[in-house]
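Milestone M4 deliverable, item 7.
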Amino acid sequence: MIKKLSLIFGSKTKAEEMVYLVSDAKYVVRQGFYLEELPKIEKFCKDNKIHFVKSRFRVLLADENSYSNKGVRIPESDKRPGMYFCYFSKDEQKAWLASYYELMNNDKDLGLLLGYPKCCVDFFCKRFSPNNPNLQLDSTNMFTNLTKRNEDAVLISHFPCSSECEESIFMGRKHLDIIKSVDKDRTEELINNLKRN
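Output delivered:
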C-alpha cells in the first residue's frame, strides 16, 4: 500500500504521513510539492474527503537535499521552480489555519497544530534560525531517528527535543503500528533502516 501511495505523493515518507492522517493519528499534515505534482494529489484528497490548502507562496530550497530545512520564500508569480507547502486535514478549518500560521511565521502554533509535542515545538522555536536550520540530533533510538530521512525512512516528522523524548517515542511507536497494519514489508524496511546507524 505504501509503495502505491508513494507514486502519488513522491516518497514513502509522504505516503505514510497521509496514512496517519486517514487513520486519525494526525489531524493536520504539512508537505512540500512542486506544481506538476499537485493534480494527482488533489484527486487523492477529493476521493478521500481530505481538505487540501496550498501556500500563497513558494519556497526555493537552499540545499540540494530533498529534506532541506532551509529555503527562501518567493511569490507565486516568480518564474523560478519553487515548492508549495501544502496542508492536509479532514477538518477544512485546520488546513486553512495551518496555512495561515505558516504565512505569519507562527512556528509555535503551527507546530502544535501539526501535533508535535510541546517540548519539541519549544525546542524548535528556541534553536531554529536561518544560520541553524538543521536541528537533527544523533539518535540511538529508532523512533526518534531522523538520520535516515534522506533514505526515505523516518517515523516522526518533527525535530525531537532529545533522542529520548517520551512523547516523540510514543508518536513513533504509534506510527510504526499503523504502518504495520497496512504494509508489513514497509514495516520491516523501516525497522531495518532505523536500527542501523
